[in-house]
Specification:
By secondary structure, the chain is α/β, with parallel strands linked by helices. About 45% of the residues lie in helices and about 15% in strands. The chain has 4 domains: about 5-125, PAS domain (Beta-Lactamase, 2-Layer Sandwich); about 160-330, P-loop containing nucleotide triphosphate hydrolases (Rossmann fold, 3-Layer(aba) Sandwich); about 335-415, Helicase, Ruva Protein, domain 3 (Orthogonal Bundle); about 425-465, Orthogonal Bundle (Arc Repressor Mutant, subunit A).
C-alpha cells in the first residue's frame, strides 16, 4: 500500500482562533459532508467530529468530544502525527472496531513550528474500496490506452499512403519523398496547384511520423484577416487589447505542442507575420500578445502554397530568409494533367468514396465517359474531378454516362464525326505506335526513347501508362 508524505498546514496562531463559535460552525459544516472527519487539539483531544466518523468509531458524540483520541480509538496514530509534525496521506489504518480504512492525518503547525491542532478524514472506508478504485483506474487507463491505439489505427487508415491514389511515375516519386519527410522532424514545404492534395500529403506526413498521436493543427493563412492572424497563431493574455477574452487565449502553435502545425497558403501571409514565423522556427518559442515572457514549444512545421515563392521573393512579397527556413524538405505535388494515367484509378476510388458519402449504390464509369474525363486538362485538379463525379452520381441512376458530365466537358467531345475513329483517337494511335517502335529500336532504353521523341522521361512514363505500354 502506498503511503504518501506531505508538509503540515502552517498557520498564524494569532489569526487561527478556535473558540466555541468556530467549533459550532465547523460541526455544522462537517456534519453536512458525506466524508468522515475529525478535528483534535494539541493535547489530541477531540474537539469536533462528524456523524460519519462517529459511525466508523461506533461511538456517540458525547462519548467522543473532549476525550483524547486514543481513549476512543486505541489504534490512533494521531499523537505520532502531531509529534512528527508530518502529514500522513493515504495511510492504511485499522480502527478499534476492526474496520480498515485509508485515512489522511494532517497536523496544523504555528509559525514557531508547534503542532497546535490536527485534522483527519477517512478517504476510503474500507481498503477494498480503495483497491477497487485503483483497479477501476487501472482498467480505465488500459481502456483509454486501447481506444487511443484504436483511434491511432483509424486515423492512420484514413491518412495512409494508400489513400494517395495513383501508380504513375510522378506520384510514386512524390510519395517516396513524402515518406522520407515523415521520418524526420524537419520543416517541410509542400508546393503544387490548388486541388492537387497538399493537405492530404501533410496529414499523411504528420500521422505516419512519431508525432502522429499528438495534435495536427491546421491554419489557412489566406482565410484569417491579417489583424487577427497574430493572435490566432500565438495567442494572447487577458487584457492585452480591447476585446481580448477573459483569461486570454492559447495560440495555434501552443495547441500543436508535441505535434505538427500545417500552415496552408503561407504565400499569402503578410510580411510582418513572416518575420514572427521566422523567429518561431529559429528560437522554438512563441510570444503571446501581452505575455510577460516567451513560451517554449515543440512543434513540427509543415507549410504549403500554390504560389511561386521565388517569384514572390523577387517582388518583395515573401522573405527570402523564411523561404530557406521552410525549404528544408520540399515536396512538389504534380498536377492532374501531368499524370493523366492516374485518372482511371482516381475515378474508381472517388466514385466509391462519393457513393458512400451521398448514400447511393455502387456505380461504374462508361468507357466513353472515361475517355472524356481523360481528355480534359483539369485546371482544378483532383478537387475539380471529385466535384464532376459527385454531380454525375447525383444525376445517374446507374452507371455514369457522358450525358451525366458537365457540358463544358462533353461539348469538346461532340465534334462532327467524333467516334471510335475521331482525330483524337487517331492521333493517340499514332503516338502509341511511335513509342512502341522507338522502344523496340532502343531495346527498351527509356532514356534513349525520350531523347529520340524529344520529350522528358516523366512525360514518356505518363504516355506509357496512358496507352498501357508495359
Amino acid at each position: 500500500m502506498y503511503t504518501g508524505r506531505t508538509q503540515p498546514i502552517v498557520v498564524d496562531e494569532g489569526e487561527f482562533v478556535v473558540n466555541e463559535s468556530f467549533l459550532k460552525t465547523m460541526a455544522t459544516l462537517i456534519d453536512a459532508l458525506p466524508v468522515a472527519m475529525i478535528f483534535i487539539d494539541s493535547q489530541t483531544r477531540i474537539i469536533a467530529i462528524n456523524q460519519e466518523f462517529l459511525d466508523v468509531l461506533e461511538v456517540t458524540r458525547e462519548q467522543a468530544l473532549g476525550r483524547a483520541v486514543r481513549e476512543v480509538d486505541p489504534n490512533s496514530k494521531f499523537p505520532d502525527t502531531l509529534l512528527s509534525k508530518t502529514a500522513d496521506i493515504a495511510h492504511k489504518h485499522t480502527f478499534r472496531s476492526g474496520k480498515t480504512a485509508i485515512v489522511h492525518r494532517i497536523p496544523i503547525v504555528n509559525a514557531e513550528g508547534r503542532a497546535i491542532y490536527g485534522f483527519g478524514m477517512v478517504l476510503f472506508d474500507t481498503v477494498e474500496n480503495f483497491s477497487d478504485m485503483v483497479i477501476r483506474n487501472q482498467l480505465l487507463e488500459t481502456t483509454v490506452n486501447h481506444y487511443k491505439e484504436q483511434l491511432s489505427l483509424l486515423r492512420s487508415a484514413e491518412f495512409g499512403w494508400d489513400k494517395i491514389i495513383g501508380q504513375s511515375q510522378l506520384i510514386r516519386e512524390t510519395k517516396e519523398m513524402a515518406k522520407k519527410a515523415s521520418k524526420t522532424d524537419s520543416t517541410t514545404l509542400i508546393t503544387g496547384q490548388s486541388g492537387t492534395g497538399k493537405e492530404l500529403f501533410a496529414n499523411c506526413i504528420h500521422m505516419l511520423s512519431h508525432r502522429g498521436e499528438h495534435p495536427f493543427v491546421k491554419v489557412n493563412c489566406a482565410a484569417i484577416p491579417n489583424e487577427l492572424l497574430e493572435s490566432e497563431l500565438f495567442g494572447y493574455v487577458e487584457g492585452s487589447f480591447t476585446g481580448a477574452k477573459k483569461g486570454g487565449m492559447i495560440g495555434k502553435f501552443e495547441l500543436a505542442d508535441k505535434g505538427s502545425i500545417f500552415l496552408d497558403e503561407i504565400g499569402d501571409m503578410p510580411l510582418g507575420m513572416q518575420a514572427k514565423i521566422l523567429r518561431v522556427l529559429q528560437e522554438r518559442e512563441v510570444d503571446r500578445i501581452g505575455g510577460p515572457k516567451p513560451v517554449p514549444i515543440d512543434v513540427r512545421v509543415i507549410a504549403a502554397t500554390n504560389k511561386n515563392l521565388k517569384k514572390l521573393i523577387q517582388e518583395g512579397k515573401f522573405r527570402e530568409d523564411l523561404y530557406y527556413r521552410l525549404n528544408v524538405m520540399t515536396i512538389e505535388i504534380p498536377s492532374l494533367r501531368e499524370r493523366t494515367g492516374d485518372i482511371k484509378e482516381l475515378c474508381a476510388f472517388l466514385v466509391r468514396k462519393i457513393a458512400r458519402r451521398i448514400g447511393r449504390g455502387e456505380a461504374a464509369i462508361s468507357q466513353r465517359a472515361l475517355r472524356i474525363l481523360m481528355s480534359h486538362d483539369w485546371p482544378g485538379n483532383i478537387r475539380e474531378l471529385e466535384n464532376v463525379l459527385e454531380r454525375a452520381l447525383n444525376l445517374a441512376e446507374g452507371d455514369i454516362l457522358p450525358p451525366h458530365l458537365p457540358a463544358y466537358l462533353t461539348q469538346r467531345d461532340q465534334l462532327p464525326g467524333v467516334g471510335e475513329h475521331s482525330l483524337k483517337t487517331m492521333l493517340a494511335d499514332v503516338e502509341k505506335q511511335a513509342i512502341l517502335r522507338s522502344l523496340e529500336r532502343h531495346a527498351g532504353n527509356k532514356s534513349q526513347v525520350a531523347a529520340e521523341l524529344e520529350i522528358s522521361r516523366s512525360t514518356l512514363y505518363e504516355k506509357m501508362e496512358l496507352y498501357d505500354i508495359g
